[in-house]
Amino acid sequence: MRAEKLQAGYSGKAVCGVVSFSLHAAQSLALVGPNGAGKSTVVKTVVGQLEAVSGTTMINGAEVDDRTLDFRREVAVVFDDDAFFPALTVEEHLAIVSAGHGVEDVEEVIASELEFFGLTEQAKSRPYNLSSGQRRRMLLASAFVRPRSLLVLDEPEQRLDTNMRHRLAARLRAEVDAGLALLVVTHDPDFLSAVATKALFIADTIHTMTPTQAAVAIASENPHAD
Predict the structure, then answer these.
(1) Pairing of β 198-202 and β 28-32
(2) CA dist., res. 190 & res. 226, Å (int)
(3) Strands in the chain per DSSP E
(4) Which of 90, 93, 99 is nearest to 121 (CA)?
(5) Rounded Cα–Cα distance for residues 21 and 17 (Å)
(6) CA pair distance 108, 111, nearest whole angstrom
(7) What is the C-alpha end-to-end distance of the chain, expressed in Å?
(8) Cβ density class 18-32: b for 16+ within 10 Å, e for less
(9) Per residue in 59-111, pLDDT tens?
(10) Which fold has domain 2-84+147-221?
(11) Band of the pLDDT at 172, cuts 50, 70, 90?
């Protein structure tokens, strides 16, 4: 993925400075910055859910279009919202995603992800019967139950307990080391330190940072972060 002189915003009005970055296989880029700085807007723009005010985003040399089969096959996205089908169970959600991406051994894969995300007992439950944290884990599981070369996560640590945060961070770093490209928005300095290979601080101006610098910046904004 490559963003060139990208400005993200709404109705032609930018919400942050000009963003440029590249993200390759076996790299993870963390977007950090104050609340309301435009991080989530940038993410939604680079994956084609919002139209850019200016600039471009390319994936594998082609301009981003989230409607194409190539994009849907390669890119998995989880935003900080509850996007689910209320009539389907947790298990059915995962089955639809995995079947749609040609996953073999679907039952095995689903069982593995349910176990990892602590949702085995909730497999037959519908989203409205789950806690907020369980719904978050279901959405994350839907990204892991399918193949992906680029994973985009908006504040994945939100509504997860400390143990789950640590397990998720370790898994993400292992997948990055194995070749995954990861773009992640986070406010958790420990999570950032565990998963990121580089960072971008987003506010009125944009700064490239090391993960250590970014973790310090996050901690200074939120001194009570665990």
Answers:
(1) parallel
(2) 8
(3) 2-7, 9-10, 13-14, 19-22, 28-32, 54-59, 62-63, 75-78, 150-154, 181-185, 198-202, 206-209
(4) 90
(5) 13
(6) 5
(7) 31
(8) bbebebeeebbbbbb
(9) 888 888 766 777 888 999 998 766 788 899 999 999 999 999 999 999 999 99
(10) Rossmann fold (3.40.50)
(11) very high
Coil vs helix vs strand at 37: coil
Annotated domain spans of the chain: 2-84+147-221
Q: What are phi and psi of 125, to 5 degrees?
A: -85, 155
Residues in the chain: 226
Q: Which of 200, 208, 197, 145 is nearest to 24 (CA)?
A: 197
What strands, in cross-sheet order, belong to the sheet with 19-22? 19-22, 2-7, 54-59, 62-63
* 154: CB partners within 8 A, 6+ apart: 39, 40, 43, 78, 79, 80, 184, 185
Assess contact for 183 and 154: CB atoms under 8 A.
Answer: no
The model's pLDDT over 192-204, given as tens digits with 9 standing for 90+, comes to 999 999 999 998 7
CA 114 → CA 16, 76, 159, distances in Å? 38, 18, 17
Closest CA to 15 of 23, 5, 7: 7
pTM check: above 0.85: yes
> How many Cβ atoms are within 10 Å of 129's Cβ, its own excluded?
12
Q: What is the DSSP letter of 115?
A: H
Residue 222, pLDDT score: 61
Structure tokens at 181: 């490209």
